[in-house]
Amino acid sequence: MPKMNLSHFEAALLFALFSSVVLGVITKRTDSERLRYGLRCFLYFLVALIGLGWLMHFGHG
Amino acid sequence: MPSNPTKADAPAPSAGKWAPAVILGWLVPGGGHFLLKRPGRGALLSASVLCMFLLGLMMRGAMFQPQTGDILTTIIYVGGFLGDLASGLLYLLATWLGYAQPDVAGHVHDYGTKFLVAAGLMNVLAMVDVYEIATGKKD
Predict the structure, then answer these.
(1) Across the interface, which of B57, B111, B128 has its CB nearest the CB of A6?
(2) How confident is the model at residue B100 (pLDDT cuts 50, 70, 90)?
(3) Where do the structural domains in chain A lie, given as residue ranges?
(4) Secondary structure class of B48 (helix, strand, coil)
(5) Is the ipTM reported for this complex over the cut 0.85?
(6) Measured between CB atoms, does B44 come within 8 Å of chain A?
(7) Helix H or strand E encompassing B44
(8) Which residues touch B92 (CB under 8 Å, ≥6 apart)?
(9) pLDDT value at position B139?
(10) DSSP structure class, residue B103
């Protein structure tokens, strides 16, 4: 099994992508609703990721 | 005075109706959806859980072993073990084939451990979805 080295951002981005797909697939009733919900979840993950990143950056001074 | 039956009064669906699909969904992520003739959703769930699990292995994440002690230790280690176990055959195969990564410091290993647990938790969500489809709560 090859070893993988990812940055924080890359790992969190992949986590957000796969989690959003699952959340989109299992929650809504129609395909278009699922797609929209999955995209919205991914966007929220991104906003939280970048927002918390900046928060920690300023928190560390 | 006649009373209208509510959802709470409805008899619980028999296990024979949902158990095979849920068990298959646990063992093979997405398998329950395939059994219930939802191949598109099954394929997406299967690919997502499989990719998360494989990424976790490639990042050399650690598998949790159940440990008890103080409440926090118990929650983290038993919960983590159950999360790992929820990946079904992926976890069982990895363990049987000798994957035993020690828990070492480093952000990549740490993400790997989280990916392995999250793959199992996503499979739990998929199993709940299978249960709802099999019992007619969802189409």
Answers:
(1) B111
(2) confident
(3) 15-60
(4) helix
(5) yes
(6) yes
(7) helix B39-58
(8) none
(9) 77
(10) -
- Beta-carbon separation of A14 and B55 below 8 A: yes
Rounded to an integer, what distance in angstroms lies between the CA atom of residue A31 and that of residue A6?
A: 32
Mark yes or no for CB contact B44/A15 under 8 Å. no
Nearest to A22 among B45, B59, B114 (CB): B45
The structure's pTM equals 0.89
**For residues A28-46, average pLDDT:** 94
| Contact status, residue B119 vs residue B54, Cβ threshold 8 Å | no
Asked if pLDDT for residue A47 goes beyond 60, the answer is yes
Closest CA to B82 of B132, B118, B108, B53: B118
Q: How far is CA A51 from CA A20, A45, A58, A60, B24, in A?
A: 18, 10, 11, 14, 39
| pLDDT above 90 as % of chain B | 74
